[in-house]
Amino acid sequence: MNTKQQHSLTQLLNLTPRQVSTGLALFYVCYVLFDLPANLIMTRLSPQVWMSRIVVGVSIVGTCMTAMRAAWSFYLLRLLLGIVIAGMWPGMTYYLSLFYPPSRMGKRIGQYFTAAQVSAAVVGLVSAGFQKMDGLGGLVGFQWMFLLYGLVTFFVGISLLWWLPDRPLASDEVRRRDGWRKWIPQAKPALTGEDARVHYNDLRRVYQRRTWTAGDFGAVLLDWRLWPLVVMYFGVVGVGIVSGLGAIDEVWLMEDTQGVQSYGTVIISATNPKLTGVQLSLLFAPIWIMDLIAILLITPISDRFHQHRALFFSAPVCIQITGLLVTTYAGSLQNPWPRYAGLLLVGFGLGPTVPICMTWTTEIFQPRHGEVGVAAASALVSGLGNLGSILTTYALYEGWAGDAAPGARRYRRSNLVMVAILAASLLSSFVLTVLLRVSDRWPGGKDKGRPGSTGDGDAAESVPDGAARRELRERGLGSFGRKR
Questions:
Q1: Phi first, then psi: what are they for 277, rounded to 5°?
Q2: Any residues with CB less than 8 A from the CB of 363 and at least 6 apart, and which?
Q3: pLDDT digits (tens, 9 = 90+) for 405-423
């Protein structure tokens, strides 16, 4: 932002590309370390309180970014941001699992994830306005961005105490209001009357929760199904760096799984060096609009055919690979627009992959491990998967000096590394699908609680959720040809 006026973040703080990559990587290191404990704490506290704490913490750190004056302050605030925001994305996955059965969570996680796409597209547009505010009140453009977003986020975080409902309780239970809880606003229940009764019958395991133990947590860690999901998430999150929000000097507050702190505009600039900062911001928004469209189109269909999650994950990954290859080899310095079209394909392919990966994690681990399974597995997949973000921010693009040299081949090797990482995600999805089918058919290895598991009788009878049983009977290709 405002590079011509020498008012960009990197210029004012005298940051080198390596220092920027280091600062971005510090965020992910802290995110990886604190994602799991943050999500486990959420299972013991009121989810609305914990989510409010995260958002308020992010707003405070973001507002402090307005006052950055040197590299050390950039490093410190990035580190603190990783700590306070840890657990936000997997925490929301856990929170939604309290209200929806796994087979219906793809659409809901996708709807939540669209907030990132909308905000990214909007930031790409309004950053042009922040650049016009440069110098107003003695603040440069990026300082106004941090200040205003920080203030808005603070009030949103406080409002969550009234806005978000607490975990559902059975009709004969009374919510505790002793100790610190008496100071917390009592939100309205999400469901009442007949709706509450139906929900209780459909998701009894949510109501019949028990305090998990270290042994329960250890069982999640030892479950082999966790690690293919981590590899899948690693690839798609790493590519989120490529199509994500903002230039290097537009460091904002969200986690990179939602496409922030990435090199989207850096690659656009490489395809057409003549573009101004405002033009880059405007060209950046359509990438996230494509991302948004894909989420709204694909995640509801993936719920309808929820027994084929691998297909709905793999097809968008193939679109991402195609987009990266187009961005790498299409066009020329005289006609760079085919490369931009490749970024649009990457954005479209990226959209549904992350929500579907988190949904599949919930589908696999909630029936097998209950509440702690969802909380721990989603945090581990999100946290360890974000190691892909560390790789792409620190080792690729601007972090790879030999690959960042201007010219027709700029970023070619970084893009091809991303293609290879996506291929690993694709392979992991295939391996997980095959192993799930094999383990279910192995003598003594069938998982009774897995949605879609087959046995000698009706498959629906092996599913503990009433809503999931209806899904098996009424939705997807499985209902074709059946007598009603």
A1: -60, -40
A2: 102, 103, 105, 306, 309, 450, 451
A3: 666 666 778 788 888 999 9
Q: Which band of pLDDT confidence, cut at 50, 70 and 90, is reported for residue 1?
A: low
Indicate the angle between helix axes 105-132 and 337-385, nearest 10 degrees: 120
- CA 303, 307, 312: angle at the middle one, nearest 5? 65
Dihedral angle computed from the Cα positions of residues 411, 415, 418 and 423, in that order, rounded to the nearest 10 degrees: -160
Buried b (16+ CB within 10 A) or exposed e, 158-174: eebbeebbbbbeeeeee
Nearest residue to 168 (alpha-carbon basis) of 204, 124, 216, 219: 204
Distance CA 303, CA 309 (A): 8
To 10 degrees, the CA torsion angle through 98, 100, 103, 105?
-90
Ramachandran quadrant class, 105 (left: phi over 0; alpha: psi -120 to 50; beta: rest): alpha
Residue 135 structure tokens: 């110098």
pTM higher than 0.85, yes or no?
no
Question: Burial, 304: exposed, middle or buried (Cβ in 10 Å; 0-12, 13-18, 19+)?
Answer: middle
Closest CA to 153 of 255, 57, 42, 30: 57
Return the structure tokens found at 368. 């097998």
The answer to whether residues 238 and 219 touch, using CB atoms and an 8 Å cutoff, is no
Residue 349 scores a pLDDT above 70:
yes
Q: What is the pLDDT of residues 262-297, one digit of tens each?
A: 455 666 666 666 666 667 767 777 887 888 899 999
CA-to-CA distance for 288 and 259, rounded, in angstroms?
9
The contacts of residue 36 (CB under 8 Å, 6+ apart) are 376, 379, 380, 383
Average pLDDT along the chain = 77
- Encoded tokens for 31: 């995110």
CB 8 within 8 A of CB 249: yes
DSSP structural state of residue 136 = G
Distance CA(403)–CA(425), nearest Å, equals 24
